[in-house]
Amino acid sequence: MSVNITTLICVYVTLPLAGLLCLWLYDEWTFRRSRKVATTQEMITCEICLHQFFAREGEILPRCPQCGSLNKRPAA
Question: Is residue 71 within 8 Å of 46, Cβ to Cβ?
Fold first, then answer.
């Protein structure tokens, strides 16, 4: 059984490219899954230093982690 040189070149080029495509798709899928933010937190902007941080749902006056000032929640 003889194999044409063109067929060999196509196989040697296509298989590694298909493998790289699969690795890239897997990496994108895991990256998108890992960057979800919990919905029990809310983004707050400090009124003093303008630092943005996440506050838990139960906190009435969240404290800024950068300057330490207390912040009121924005009106919903």
Answer: yes
Round to whole Å and give the CA distance between 64 and 43. 11
Write out pLDDT tens, residues 9-23: 999 999 999 999 999
Per-residue pLDDT tens digits for 26-48: 999 888 877 765 556 688 899 99
Strand partners, 59: none
Query: Which amino acid is located at 52 in the chain?
Result: Q
Q: How far apart are alpha carbons 44 and 52 in whole angstroms?
A: 6
**Residue 16 is encoded by which pair of tokens?**
């590694």
- Please state whether the predicted TM-score (pTM) of the whole model is above 0.90: no
